[in-house]
Structures are given as structure tokens and as C-alpha cells.
Batch of 2 targets.
Target 1
Amino acid sequence: MRIAVVQFPGSNCERETMLAVKRAGMEPVEFLWNESREKLYAMDGYIIVGGFSYEDRSRAGIIAALDPVMLELKAQSEKGKPILGICNGAQILVETGLVPGLENNKLGMALTENKRIAHGKILGTGYYNAWVNMRLTDEYQRNAFTRYLTAQDILHVPVAHGEGRFVMTTAMWQEIEQQGLHVFRYCDAEGKIIDHFPVNPNGSLGNTAAIANKAGNVMAMMPHPERTVNGDPIFQSIRDYITEGRTEHTVPLYYYPRRTGLPSYQKPEYAHECIIELVIADNQALTVQNTLRQIGIPVTVKRQIHWEVHCDSAAVLAEIKKTGVLYNERKETEVVPKKMLSTAFLVRAHEDVIGQQKRQTLQDHFSIQGVNAIQHGVLWHFSSETGNIADLIEKILHTNIISNPYAHDCYQYT
């Protein structure tokens, strides 16, 4: 019984995963993203390991999701073979649409930046590493990963991620709940589902730790069951699922995403824009550029950080810039906004926890008053040597490489 342990550049959990596969009595087979896809044909199951594929450039999981090898994993999933994505692997599965499994694997949700809030204060964003408890949802879907567990079993496992918060539309969430596809949920030591930090380590909707597709053979899980024997029942369940040879053929979920128009960015009258560029090589922009070129979209990409600051006066703005909270002068510089020669898009997180945290820092640590709001965003610029950039923009947006509509707002920027 052979399990492919799938790795991309930046993956770092292959050893723990292989040991967990061996403990369950299966044979792990290392598979690198650039190997021949034919090697995957003979595998009985697949685990996309955790880590930071492509350094989480643009956002976690999206670059690997666009790799051709994921087309083969999609094909294998349709044969009923089990696929488990752990942490970064979960992010990749969500970005490919294999989870939750809509028609034609359309994007149906997002795993976005952590949100740690208690008593109205932002305790932190980004990477968080701790031990947590999780258990099966009361009305969980019985699938390839649950055969050795019940809702009374509490698993004590580690989490280690920066973008682990499941978000989606209300309609999508209702169907997930009805089907029991939010298979695992964060809980306390007694199994109670308490929706605040630290029980819910990242602010995930419904304390969700893992979501499966309707067929039950593909699951995206943020905690790391491979790093502890406490998670072995999940791998033993995969073994028994393969042994039984059962294949569940089900129709996709009913939810169908609707695309909306792309609004233009309008700076509020009393707001100030602060646009920041790296003075060193921008690897994020280069990775997005190379990925687009590899899939047949020949563009040049530039990236900038965009701050929209609402404050009482220019003097307050100058005081804010001196703190170094918005940018680091040793590697970043502020540039003057000018008429764009490229096609640009401004991407902002729906909740913009980063902007909220910056405002809180300015008030609490620097005692700067008169800061009414701060919004954080990323400006993506696209140009083409052939001059036909308008023909390429729809293709670029269709990849979702710069934004996930369930986590971000995207604006045309002129």
C-alpha cells in the first residue's frame, strides 16, 4: 500500500509525514513536484505535506495550486483515491478547489490570515505555533479519515501556520454544516467548542480545523496530526479505506459561486495614500511573474504595499511615518503616486486585521492620537512587452493568483 508524500519547494514536513504513514502500516513514497506525473499513477493515496511552499508568496498555497502536478491529483481524486492536505497542503487543496468540491472544482472558500482577538484587542496576526485540541464534529461525515475516531475522542495536536482561518459565504457554510463536511473542529480539553482564542487558534469560522469534499476522500486539515502519535488514527483510517477499496461517487456540492464586477478604487477625500516599494529584489512579484509565464500568460509583474491612512492632519501622518510601523526604511521606501503605465489592481483583506493591528500599535505603543483608521493592501502592476495587456487581464484574474474572492476585495487602480 503506497502513499505518495507530495512536496513542493519550501515543504518541510516530509519526514514526520513519512513516519506517520509507516506507523499506520503503509509505505511512504517521496514525490517532488517536478518529477514525472506518471509516478503518481501507481500510488494508492496521497498526502500533500505542510511547510511553506514557495515561501507563501502572494498567499499561502496559491503558487503550488497552479502547478501542473495538481491536475494529476485532481484526476486521481476522481478515482476515489484518498488525498490528505496538511497545513500548507490544506491551503493548496482549497486553492485548487478540490476542497470543498464544487462543480468543476471552482474556488469555494479561503484559508486566510490568522486572527487572534481576545476582549476586543488584537493579540496578533500571522504565524502561530501551539498545541491545540480538536475533535470530530457532532454530525461529522464518515469518510476516509474518520474510521478510528468518534466525536468523543479529543486529539491533542500541534498547529503551526500563518493563514489557517477558514472563511466562506454564508450559503457555502450552511451546506458544509448540513453535509457534516467540517469534519474536525477546535475544542477545549473537555471537547467544548468555544469560539475564541486560544481554543480557536486562528479565528476560523465555526472553529473549523478540517473540511472534506462530499465524496469523503479529500480533506484539508490545518493542524499537524503527523507530528504526534495522537494523530495516528487518521492515517490508520486512510489505510483501512484503501484496503476496503470502496469508491464514493457523488455529485458536487450545490453551491455555485457567482462572479461580481470589479470596482474601481476611489480614495476617500480625507484619506492619505502611502505607497511602499522594496529597495531589494521583490521575490513575491518575481514568483507571480514566473508562474504566470509558465502557464502561458507573458507579463511583467511589480508589487507595492498600499496604506490608506485616515488621520486628523498631515502632522499626524508625518508622526506615523517616523515610527517605522508602516514600513522599514532599511529595506523599503515610500514612492510618490503617479499615473500608471501598467494595469494595476489593489487587493485588500475583507477584515483587514493587519490595518487594525497597525492602528492599535500606533495608539498603544507610540501614544499617537488622531488615527481614525488604517487600511492595508497590495498593489499588483501588470504590463506586457507585446502591448496587449488588456487581452491578458481576464486570464490573470481567472487564476486567482493575486486574490481569493472569499478573503479579499479587489479593485481596479488607476
Target 2
Amino acid sequence: MAITVAVDCMGGDRGAAVTVPAALAALEDDADIGLILVGSSAAIEEELRRARAAPDNRLRVRGATETVAMDEPPATALRNKKDSSMRVAIDLVKDGAANACVSAGNTGALMAISRFVLKTLPGIDRPAIASILPTQTGQTCMLDLGANVDCSAEHLLQFGIMGSELFAALERKERPSVGLLNVGEEEIKGNEVVKQAAELLRGSGLNFHGNVEGDDIYKGTTDVVVCDGFVGNVALKASEGVAQMLAGHLRAEFERTFLNRLAALAASPVIRSFKRRFDHRRYNGATLLGLRGIVVKSHGSADAFAFGCAIRRAAEEARGAVLAHISERLTSIEKNVA
């Protein structure tokens, strides 16, 4: 068993009712991972009984007496809940008992606790939230998606390095292309921070494509899209809103008349294929990138399928030695600058 993932079973909207079935499915899909289920022992064991499963050499239960609420202030969770399922899962990564952890809990608390317990990698000033998004040509990694609303040019360079190594590990691709999100492709466009970041990226040794615009994200123009957390979060939420609007309008049109319903029936194979391709659950799991440990944040409303995808992503990052590759790249850049 090469990879062990600690699972915060109490986070998210439904807690163990989702996380435990997801964990069991992940074990079935990947024979090379082991899981540590962290949280209320009674709640976890009840879900295991329902699934007719039991702890074994690949599945362990680690009790925790506290839970971080979804609306709990991060500072409160950090100071006052040292035996929360979230804190214990992160401690397991720090202690080396797990290679990664996954939580669907409070994002602010997860970031605060992870940064306090694990610290950042040498050469990384701030962790970033990175996620894989679908595109016309495949997938792209975008960061930062909300952890840092004010960034320097050096921070954006660090995001580019981290995003490039993450994409390389997950997609098995050497030298992924990196784009800097801007208001235009021309070098003269953007504010001073973005212009300075472009210069740093050009001299970094990364496969820097140059500036990209908002529509390039889903065209798949580059493998990695770099931006600050303010811009990234707005772009992501706007994209989600457009997708929901289009899906709602399409559903309403298909249901509007009898002939439209017949058309929907005839088009059902195409619709099912489309839904599978762009099923947001397949892309669940945002990485808190730049820490001395792998931490993956699942959406709080994720179902078992989506949470299972987050577990698999954490395992893939550990297998791909993402943290070691980021450190190597940073060391290489520092030597070139010196």
C-alpha cells in the first residue's frame, strides 16, 4: 500500500453519510491506497455497518471528539478545537501517518489550520487554492481561486510554479504551458503587478505562453492559468452561474411543449454524454497548494461520487510527488537568479 489518505469524515453538509461511502468506493477503485477515517467513532462505525464494511489493514478509524462547523470562524476552530476531525486529519499528515488529507469542511478553517500545522514550503509565501477545470481540449489548472485577494508579482510567479508542477503530476505531462490571466494578450496590457509577474514568468524557465484572457480558460489555451485570488474567485463563480443558467434554460425549453419533450427524448443519448463530460462532480477537489503536505478541499455539498473524486485527486498528488517537484523547481529558479 503506497499511499495513505486521511479523510475528515465530519466535514461538509452531510458528514459521514457521504464521506464514508465515498471512502469505501475509493478503496474499491484503487487497490494501492489506504484510508484513515477521522471523526466521531460512533458515526463512522454506524455508516460502516450500513455498508457491511469493517476496518482492516487498508481502512482504519481515528476518533475525534470535535467538529468544525461550516460557519465557524477560522480563528475559533484553530484555537479552540484541537481535537476536531479536521485538525486530527491534518495532524496525521504532519506526523507522516498519512500522505494527504481530504475535507469538505469550512474552507477558511481548513486553510488556517493547514497553514498553522503544516507550514508553507520553502520559497512559498502564501498557499493558493488550485482546481482542475474542464476545457474544449481537455483540462486546465487554475489558481489562485480565493485564498489571496492581494498578490505581488512574486506570488503570481510562485502560483505559476506550483500550478505547473501540479498539472504535470496529475496529467503526466512534461512542461505544461502557463498563462497569466489578463485583460488582453498584449504585453502592455494589465496593471503593474501583472506586468511584473509576466516578466518574472518569462525568466523562470517555465513553459510560459504569455497573457491569456477570460475566454482562454475554457478554450484550453494553456494548461495552467495564473491569477490572484480575487480575480480567480470571481471568474470561477461567474462561470458556475453561466453554466447553471444555460442548464436551466435548456431544461425549460425541452419541457415547454409536447414536441420539445419528444425532441428531448430523441436527444437523450447526446444529453447524457454531454452531462458526463462536464459533470462538475468529476472535478471536485481543490488543492491547498504550497503547504508542506497535501490538503484537498472538497465542496461542502458534494455527494459520495464527488467526494470520492476528491480522495482520488489527493492520492494522485501524493503519487506524483507534487511537493518534491515544486521544491526542486523553486531551488532551480533560485540558483538561476543567483
